[in-house]
Amino acid sequence: MTKHIPNLQVALDHSDLKGAIKAAVAVGAEVDIIEAGTVCLLQVGSELVEVLRNLFPDKIIVADTKCADAGGTIAKNNAVRGADWMTCICSATIPTMSAALKAIQEVNGDKGEIQIELYGDWTYDQAQLWLDAGISQAIYHQSRDALLAGETWGEKDLNKVKKLIDMGFRVSVTGGLDVDTLKLFEGVDVYTFIAGRGITEAENPAQAAREFKDEIRRIWG
Amino acid sequence: MTKHIPNLQVALDHSDLKGAIKAAVAVGAEVDIIEAGTVCLLQVGSELVEVLRNLFPDKIIVADTKCADAGGTIAKNNAVRGADWMTCICSATIPTMSAALKAIQEVNGDKGEIQIELYGDWTYDQAQLWLDAGISQAIYHQSRDALLAGETWGEKDLNKVKKLIDMGFRVSVTGGLDVDTLKLFEGVDVYTFIAGRGITEAENPAQAAREFKDEIRRIWG
Which residues form the Orotidine 5'-phosphate decarboxylase domain (chains A, B) (predicted)? Predict the structure, then answer.
């Protein structure tokens, strides 16, 4: 197995299209994956995906829909506007996830992927069903609201991430990440680090993205 | 306790604003609650909520965001555009749900409510935490994709609905409902029946809504 250097993904979680686009233009070239965030999708719709696709034809674009139902419709709606990947919430049913996967691959071929967003209580038995359904990306989250309530990354989180990786998932991690917290994950084969405000609200967002990339290369390179 | 006659809610799950508005205009006056559906919100954003609010100043408008995170931001974004209620997915954390409730009540006062969308595996222990957090509406779902895969309403579903009602929830039910399936719920104190295509795709949507209301009154009136 060749060593994987974790991707860097920027989440655009603005409540307005202009803010999201401004941030995307500032940092898009520095990152591997650009995420149309849930807050922004719910505010402005999938036009955001289309704008990002046009601005960054060669980047991976993720629509963070956290889809819970109507997987086929929502995946198609986003795929035709340029999303390579889309997220489903872990409490969605397997038929929803499968319908989403089928729809996104109808537009994107094998490059189309569904990522499962892990929130609340889920089990490894459920996770195995996602793998069985052909879904091998998961996103391990520290909820923004949980972080605001004082929770943070700990050994328990890292062990869950490791177990998912051992099961065969490519795991993204997100929630309250900054350059200094990356080293908490040293030795863990993280697939992608997702940062939002840690990059987009920095004084110099492009430089903040480069600092993330430098630290990722220092640890995993 | 005065007897409650279940509400009728229409879900606008169109992929385009025009289709959603056309359906809203056709049936809005006939129903109690108008839902800005997830599919449409993700396609066109919260402008949908604003249009519905302007069209129907006296109806309850629900933003079916199925919010999983950033509850405060998403609730505020929808409340300021006119949503009375908003949904959170059951796998959201309690801090997310609480932040959403606080934000929607900051705009709407006590009239602002959060509804928990029940998907996948949830527990009554979790449900008690929602009640403890001041959230007393839940939506029991048959997933559209699960219905397409051949599942339907059964005794197991009804017992879960009854148990939630016994706990103190006002429970909405949705998923594959038509006028003929309402009688399955006879004897159950359902708070709201939610129908989408069963109304909006009918040859005469307003008449379809009236038939739902007539059957509800026949059974619960």
Answer: 7-212
